[in-house]
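Input (structure):
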């Protein structure tokens, strides 16, 4: 297993990089784990998700970046979290598993890492809810804490690799989420929870525990710096992951992206 850590990176680059690391895992015939955070609070949408139920006036007013994930699922505000991304190449034993089987294996690894830190998490049986907010209802095998969703994940498969990535919540801003998803703060608080809402575990300890647990399913870890060619390719392809929810928000996000590249 090759491990990369990339902290405080832009959302469009994050999405492009996850895909490029999937290609790299196929090239190297080895699983890749990336742990990362986001440069600023960023709203992501599933690959085929309709852009409904969002307070676009609020998103536009505060210039919140919006991206389209290569995976499925519903909307996530990436804010106070650790995001994991796992690429499994064709030919690896896990590649041959079905979608939910891979979910289950990865959830077990994350649960082991959190339980090693004294966090009593559980796997959900799955619930349905007609909402754009991913954390309103856990899917099957997703991880909960005190009956609230702690980890949200999504997956997609190509002929070369399987990519699964997800958000492990550290803390959340209830008022911000309520504004974005047109919900009450109390409704948000009934749905989502962060590790730091229950126990104060240092960031570095969580990262170390995750890597240790993923070794059990992906093999011994080799920590590396990102190859320059992969970074270059992800930067070149990042713009395709930007979401334009309306004319105005499209201009806002395009302007932000252009400023970042200049």
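Output (sequence):
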């Amino acid at each position: 297993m090759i491990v990369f850590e990339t902290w405080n990176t832009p959302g469009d680059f994050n999405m492009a990089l996850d895909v490029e690391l999937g290609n790299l895992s196929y090239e190297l015939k080895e699983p890749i784990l990336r742990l990362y955070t986001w440069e600023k609070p960023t709203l992501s949408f599933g690959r085929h998700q309709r852009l409904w139920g969002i307070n676009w006036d609020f998103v536009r007013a505060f210039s919140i970046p919006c991206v389209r994930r290569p995976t499925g699922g519903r909307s996530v505000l990436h804010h106070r979290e650790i995001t994991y991304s796992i690429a499994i190449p064709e030919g690896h034993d896990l590649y041959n598993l079905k979608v939910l089987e891979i979910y289950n294996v990865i959830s077990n690894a994350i649960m082991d890492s959190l339980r090693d830190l004294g966090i009593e998490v559980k796997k959900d049986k799955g619930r349905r809810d007609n909402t754009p907010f991913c954390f309103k209802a856990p899917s099957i095998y997703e991880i909960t804490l005190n009956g609230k969703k702690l980890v949200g994940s999504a997956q997609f498969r190509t002929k070369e690799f399987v990519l699964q990535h997800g958000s492990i919540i550290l803390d959340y801003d209830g008022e911000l989420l309520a504004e974005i998803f047109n919900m009450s703060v109390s409704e948000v608080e009934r749905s989502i929870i962060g590790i730091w809402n229950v126990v104060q575990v240092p960031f570095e300890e969580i990262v170390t525990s995750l890597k240790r647990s993923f070794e059990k399913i992906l093999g011994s870890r080799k920590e590396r710096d990102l190859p320059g060619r992969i970074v270059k390719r992800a930067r070149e392809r990042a713009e395709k992951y930007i979401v334009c929810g309306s004319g105005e928000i499209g201009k806002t996000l395009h302007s932000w992206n252009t400023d970042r590249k200049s």
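Notes: The two ends are 35 Å apart (CA to CA). The mean pLDDT is 91.
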